Fold this sequence. Notes:
This protein is an alpha/beta fold. It contains 9 helices and 8 strands. An 8-stranded mixed β-sheet has the order 1-2-4-3-5-6-7-8, sandwiched between helices.
Amino acid sequence: MAKNGASFLSSGLFRFLLFVLCALLLCAGGAAFLLYSVTHPARDRERIDPADLLLRTEDVTFRASDGVLLSGWLVKGAPRAPVIILCHDLGGSRSTLLGSAVSLNRVGYPLLVFDFRGHGASAGSGSDLGVSEKRDIDGAVAYLKGRDDIDGSRVGLWGIGMGAYAGALAALDNPEIVALALDSLYPDVGTQLDRLVQERIPPALHGLMPALHAAYKPYLALRSKTPALSSSLAGLEGRDILLIAATDPPDRYQEEKAIYAALPEGPKGGKNLLELKASVVTGLYAEDKKTYDNAIVRFFSASLPKGGAAKTPAGKPIQVLER
């Protein structure tokens, strides 16, 4: 018996099985490392102080709907004007949006610019690419409704990447959110996770993506129980929406056009698709940056009107590719 056991341990079959086991463990470890690196980005240090941009702000804290403590700035605007929530991307922070916030504030909008959980100065750790962050926006809306210096019953939202996904989910449950500008919106968490993981591995290993996806599928099932946004877009009926899409890379652009086609029409500004060579996520320069900022201001001025605001910037209408 002992001889048979020793014979098996020295056999080619045993060595093959041992190799397969080691390969599986290595693959699982690599998948876990990649998953952690995507869902636990380093906290972004604040790079801009609001005072440097001549913005009048108040440091605020509030709690997400599940109790996580969040930090932000309330940028002062016209009294009792509707407020716009600015939602950064994965790995970003409230300071990354301040430069573009100036144009909105200049025409009178108060703004809530905050750090999502696990980012910047807010509590919490880790991300599930917009599902938990939706609760942060729920808390932001509840906080704004409790203030008497702004109109918390009419809220706009401008989100980028993860902030766009979380914002669209939050709008489904918060009728106060009446206008959304969504930059680089993705259809579901799994699609975005695949994209971010693939960006972290060499092109020669891209063929392993199906195996990696299977490895982190249990994580998606555990952390992302909310139905994919792409199956819930009809719930945004009654909201005005500006979808901002970069034409490069083409596969992502086609995803966003499919999302746009599935969106319902809004009551005031309708639904709009702004096409640029790049978006905030991929980098904006010169004329594209000016076009982007002006489109954001014109969209909210039409969809979230306020009295006594400064004149909005002139320019071409928001580019609508399909209506």
